[in-house]
Amino acid sequence: MKIGYLGPKATFTDLAVTTMFPRAEKIPYHTIPECIDAVSNEEIDAGVVPLENALEGSVNLTLDYLIHEQLLPIVGEIIAPIQQHLMVHPYHAHHWTEVKEIYSHSHAIAQCHKFLHANLKKAKHVYMTSTSAAAKFVSERPHLPIAAIANRLAAEEYGLTIVQENIHDYDYNHTRFIIVRKQNEPLKIDSPLYAGDKTTLMVMLPKDQPGALHQVLSAFAWRKLNLTKIESRPAKTGLGNYFFIIDIDQKMDEVLIPGAIAELEALDCTVQVLGSYPYYII
Ligand SMILES: O=C(O)C(=O)C[C@]1(C(=O)O)C=C[C@@H](O)C=C1
């Protein structure tokens, strides 16, 4: 089985894929859209991309690309712990406090703001496509006083020295990664990491209807459907036009979720099921 992921080697996405699919052929992609496109073009059997971090919130690029460009079904989710480390080329290990630039994924930099503010206030932040792309970049420029924020595997893979460990600002730092496929067919994963099932919906509210969100929520509430996430994103059709992403804490059933969807449609909402899938906690 071929699994694509946000690369290069040693991203957090790579770690999640390696744990969940130890025997799969792993194919790295430079960006999240490239990985999603590869699923859509059937170059790979499934793609794994980051969706949400406990400290920094949604990975908007993933959400927006899925919703607006390639609406692929979500067939699974992996929740993984995230530990960020500051690393430099070995030449700079003894004077790391003098680095002028810090390279990483924007989410990783955001997870370490307190540390950076306290210890490297003057260094410029440079966003890269992933944490391991940043580690690779730093390793290829030994003459420059620069650092990367990435995981331990990236330090090993690219020959960097970790100079500060666990620099993320809060202990509970986890990221959700979704598994997307071309067809809505679950991957056969028999794992002790299985932790439950979820259903994700996209709901577009009718225009200018007072109390519409309240009515949407009540369709779930009186059916006692437990929502684990509700988030709005711009519909990109005009100022003030938003859609909602709603996660329900259970598998698609034959009565409750279809009933809630029918009620929302009767309210003139547009509803799309993005997936009903198992999740795994590493
Ligand atoms: O850059 C990586 O290593 C990724 O896998 C991406 C990503 C993200 O997009 O949130 C994944 C986990 C961490 O939260 C930081 C970065």
UniProtKB/TrEMBL annotation:
- Residue ranges of the Prephenate dehydratase domain? 2-182
| UniProt xrefs under NCBIfam families | PRK11898.1
Q: In which pathway does it act?
A: Amino-acid biosynthesis; L-phenylalanine biosynthesis; phenylpyruvate from prephenate: step 1/1
Keywords, comma-separated and alphabetical: Amino-acid biosynthesis, Aromatic amino acid biosynthesis, Lyase, Phenylalanine biosynthesis
What Gene3D superfamilies does this protein map onto? Answer: 3.30.70.260, Periplasmic binding protein-like II
Q: What Pfam families does this protein's entry cite?
A: ACT, PDT
- Tell me the InterPro entries matching this sequence: ACT-like_dom_sf, ACT_dom, Chor_mutase/pphenate_deHydtase, Preph_deHydtase, Preph_deHydtase_CS
Any single GO BP term? L-phenylalanine biosynthetic process
Q: Which reaction does it catalyse?
A: prephenate + H(+) = 3-phenylpyruvate + CO2 + H2O
Can you say what this protein is called?
Prephenate dehydratase
- Record's GO cellular component terms: cytoplasm
* Residues the UniProt record annotates as site (Essential for prephenate dehydratase activity): 175
Q: Which domain of life is it from?
A: Bacteria
Q: EC?
A: 4.2.1.51
Span of domain ACT: 201-278
EC top class, in one word?
lyase
For this UniProt entry, the molecular function terms from Gene Ontology, in alphabetical order, are: prephenate dehydratase activity
Organism field: Parageobacillus galactosidasius
